[in-house]
Amino acid sequence: MITTTTNDIQGQIITNYYGVVTGEAIIGANLFKDLFASITDLVGGRSGSYEKVLREAKENAMQEMLHNARSLGANAVVGIDLDYETIGDRGSMLMVSASGTAVRIQD
Fold it and tell me: CB–CB of 96/83 below 8 Å?
């Protein structure tokens, strides 16, 4: 399935619009990840554990969105937007939402 953040796909003709599709993922970060991330924050550098959690949440949200698009008969999703939010006590949960427009492009 073709996915893009643009509203069209260069060289392709969109033959049908199915509407907005979404996918969401909420992932908790555990105490050990929080501890190691805070140490990384103190000494500088990147937090690999949080980056991994973020990638997993994004992938889960995208897969749910694509599943919803396929169920409508789409073979592409255009105009994709990803949003990231922390929720819960002290921002202990990460929510990623993916949305886009499910379309059918000419085969």
Answer: yes
